[in-house]
Request: fold
Amino acid sequence: MKYIIKKIIGLIITLLIVSILAFFAFEVIPGDPARTILGTEATESKVQALREEMGLNRPLTERYVQWGKDFLTGDMGISYFYQIPVREMIGDKLPITVAMTVLAFCFTLLLSVPVSILSVRYENHFFDRMFLILNQVTMSIPPFFIGIIFTVIFGLVFRWFTPGGYVSYTESMSGFLSYLILPSLAIALPRAAMTTKMLRNSLIAEMHQDYVRTAYSRGNSPWRVLLCHAFRNGIVPVVTFLGMAVADMIANSIVVEHVFGIPGIGRTLIGSISKRDYPVVEAIIVLIAVVTLVMNTLVDLLYHRLDKRIEV
Amino acid sequence: MKRKITSCNFILGAVITVFMLALILLGFVWTPYDPEAMQGSLKLQPPSLLHIFGTDQFGRDILSRVLSGAGSTLLIALGTILMGGIAGILVGAFTGYFGGWLDEGLMRVNDAVAAFPSVLLALVIITLLGPGTYKVMLALGIAFIPSFARIVRGEFLRLREADYVTSTRLIGVSTPRILFVHMLPNILPALLSALAIGFNNAVLAEASMSYLGIGVQPPDASLGRMLSESQTYLAGGPWCAIFPGAFLVLLILGVGLLGEGILDQFGGGR
Reply:
């Protein structure tokens, strides 16, 4: 319980630092937001009036507190470019990116767990060796390049899907999910390869422990020892890695969305960066950081549950 | 003491890395064709003896473009790990060696910065600075400081109480000298393998950013942008995508293996 409280306090402090960094990073940008919105033609008095209305004339700390309060209640400011609330801009795109990341995470687990168990069971077998090489190569392929390869193979050669033929989830849920399979797989593959490598090494280390020998001597079958004894301990160090992988998957989904023409949050982010639409960029970045930090804390807590000795 | 090189990862990684680096360095002084020269009659030619990697939608030689694009990728990646590495070593060495409230505070900020995936952090910095080769380098360099600092800090923390450190302290060696002359060489294997991982992440991040159109800007060539341009012509010329991508994969594979090999070979059984 003490551990959980300590972790949550740590999370809050880190979130505060993130928000301060994000807020001030976008404060130091040269240029006046009021003038950006009104354009260069606007008169000085109009700009001053808007500055007053936006609260830009108030002290920095006061504005930070106001910004933080607004953000917590879901008010993320107004887009400079489209003049609509940021929340409306990203609200319907968020589920797409979340669905993709969740799918990618599931694929990572579904691929890496069985494969690493098989590879430990048949350690040093010919297939294990072949597989290790394949694994190392898979780890080195950028997700967006996997996306392009998928487009060539499954879109152009086999014609299993139409590249760019994204189906909205409001139209058809099954069409939406099936269009997301390949992009999520593209994000998941390199991560799954890394996870497999870690899990394999960790499982092999466990298989040399004394308790495994004891389990064998009591007449357990090799499969039972691996699955019921070694796996439970071997998965522990991999959990942290999976927690960090979530952040990476979100970042990669931004690029992979572009490959498959999916109108998720990544598209909005990149578009806003090119248009210098700061409130949108700021909101998306802070959202991603919050998700990442919360995920990492949850993973730490899970880690603690799995292995009570950890107290850092 | 000389040790026999036994790690497969190290040998294979070194071979691939040296080969790829030699190709890229060659690209700085010589390419088969001018990377920018367009030949209207040779649009989207499949690979042949004249154009080993084929030609793109403007009839430009893909091999020449891959080599010159990889050149800017290499510059950015090296600049990134140089910048991130030096700053990371400084921050990590002092916080790890001294500890205390400075360490606590800096590591909190470090955690906060590390919460952003490094590509995203680089994107924010690009938003503030605008795109371009040197700005990408700066953005990635800053984005990579936390990860290096964390690793270096851990190593210095581990060695802080080592006997040789205590002895040098007792005979009155100055602190910077202890940190950088006595301790730094001892963390080299960990540092080098972290730099190899950082190099790969930088290559990946640069390629992703250029792919999205906010990294290296024309006329500078870039593998990421080649991949993004090739997507329109995937049906007519898949080689426009395959070769730049495969080049990236080989570079990342080589350096990744090398980084692991350094740990296997010189990590001292850790």
Summary: Chain B touches chain A at residues 108-109, 111-113, 115-120, 123-124, 126-128, 200, 204, 207-208, 211-214, 227-228, 230-231, 234-235, 238, 241-242, 245, 248-250, 252-253, 256-257 (CB under 8 Å).
